[in-house]
Amino acid sequence: MATMFNTFVNSFTNRLELPVRQHLKNVYACLSMSTISAAAGAYVHLYTELLQANLLTTLGTFGLLLGLISTPDNGKNQKLRLGYLLGFAFLSGLGLGPLFQMIIAINPSIIVTALMGTTVVFVSFSISSLLAERGRWLYLGGILISLLNIMVLFSFLNLFLRWSLFHQTHLYGGLFLMCGFVIYDTQLIVEKFHAGSKDFILHSLDLFIDFIGIFRHLLIILTQKELSTDNQRNKRKE
Q: Pick from 44, 34, 36, 96: which is nearest to 64 by CA?
């Protein structure tokens, strides 16, 4: 086990230069803080009367996102931009509150299972991206954006058609798409750093959106399976 661990660490050391590793350390530190902030937002919605997910908080989410993107990193405004990021993550978690309420009424363990699954998937794809040949997966960018546009179009059409097949395709296709974005965004962060972009706060935003996307899709998929299992049990009892 120790030999495998040392080989794994050496692979990272040989593949990534020290400045890149330090940059990634900052990126994943911001990602961790964002995840904690999102968890706090979900907790506030579920267990307090301070804030509830609504149209106003949704507008606030987009406002903070726009503020972060439109505020360039000048080396002196890191605290402000980090505040934008954590505020965006907090309201994103708050927005998951209604979904959490529905899932808790069905089976609270789904949330834990989805979180563990998301972590395993995210870490696995991130590691595979970092250990891959430099720039190997960057070609995925155009493909992923094209697929994303197609899925948005399908979602719009399904508002009128209400076809379950479209819904399931969108659900599983979205999960697959988010996994692809983890690989792409991870390598893109490394390439941006080599190109001179050291904005680790903005770079962590991409990974946070990927993480939340995978988590949301897994929540819905696992909930559907739980409901399907319950329906089968009820039919057998009848």
A: 34
Helix, strand, or coil here: 54? coil
Q: Collapse the DSSP code of 5 into the 3-class scheme (helix H, G, I; strand E, B; otherwise coil) and give the result.
A: helix
Task: Give 115-173 pLDDT, tens digit per residue.
Answer: 999 999 999 999 989 888 887 888 888 889 998 888 888 778 777 777 777 778 888 88
Q: Which residues contact 118 (CB under 8 A, 6 or more apart)?
A: 211, 214, 215, 218
- Any long-range contacts for 164-173 (C-beta under 8 Å, 24+ apart)? 171/217, 171/220, 171/221, 171/224, 172/217, 172/221, 173/147
Contact 41, 90 (CB under 8 A): yes
- Asked if the model's pLDDT at residue 35 lies above 90, the reply is yes
How far apart CA 210 and CA 216 sit, in angstroms, is 10
DSSP category for residue 45: H
Q: Which amino acid is at 45?
A: H
Q: Give the integer Cα–Cα distance in Å for 148 and 225.
A: 25
Give Rg (Cα) of the chain: 20
